[in-house]
Amino acid sequence: MKLKVLWVGKTQEEWLRRGVDEYSGRIRRYVPLEIGEAREEKGAAAEAMRARECERLEKLLPKNARLVLLDERGEGLTSPQLASFIGKCRDTAVPELVFAIGGAYGFTDTFRARADRVLALSPMTFTHQMVRVVLLEQVYRAFTIINGEPYHH
To answer: Sign (positive/negative) of CA torsion 23, 58, 118, 66?
Structure first.
């Protein structure tokens, strides 16, 4: 199984880029990982920005991938439940698992309907840039759970 994480816009802060690099490197010990960035839309109404950003994300999606959106209104999972989900994807030969993080205004209803699953990382609100590091850390944690390693306790 390959893993792909897509997000809108560049990671602005150096400390966030370091976190992305750290957890990306850790994940790559378990599976091939690709990160894709869709250009952020600026200067339009929220609905138009959301639509253009989702069109750009759509172009980055591999065919036959299982798509998981990160959204504050999504389903909440524990870390072991996320590990179980990722493990099932791996064990059922899902060719590519894609996690997508939207821009500041989220996803269109059309793009959301395309998703296989919509997850929330927390009932709290995070910046869409901070979510990148939190998601990558949780995916890394999931792989350590799957492999019975002591990181998660």
So the answer is: negative
> Cα separation of 135 and 11, whole Å?
14
pLDDT surpassing 80 at residue 80: yes
Contact assessment for residue 139 and residue 27, using Cβ atoms and an 8 Å cutoff: yes
Contact 132, 38 (CB under 8 A): no
Instruction: Write down the pTM of the prediction.
Output: 0.94
Number of domains into which the chain is organized:
1
* Banded model confidence at residue 54, pLDDT cuts 50, 70, 90: very high
Q: Taking a C-beta distance cutoff of 8 angstroms, is the pair 135, 27 a contact?
A: no
- Domain hosting 61: range is 2-146
The two structure tokens encoding residue 29: 């010990």
Using alpha carbons, select from 54, 60, 19, 20 the residue that is nearest to residue 37: 60
| CATH code at position 63 | 3.40.1280.10
Average pLDDT over residues 2-10: 96
What pLDDT is stored for residue 128 in this prediction?
84
Asked, for residue 153, whether it belongs to a domain, the answer is no
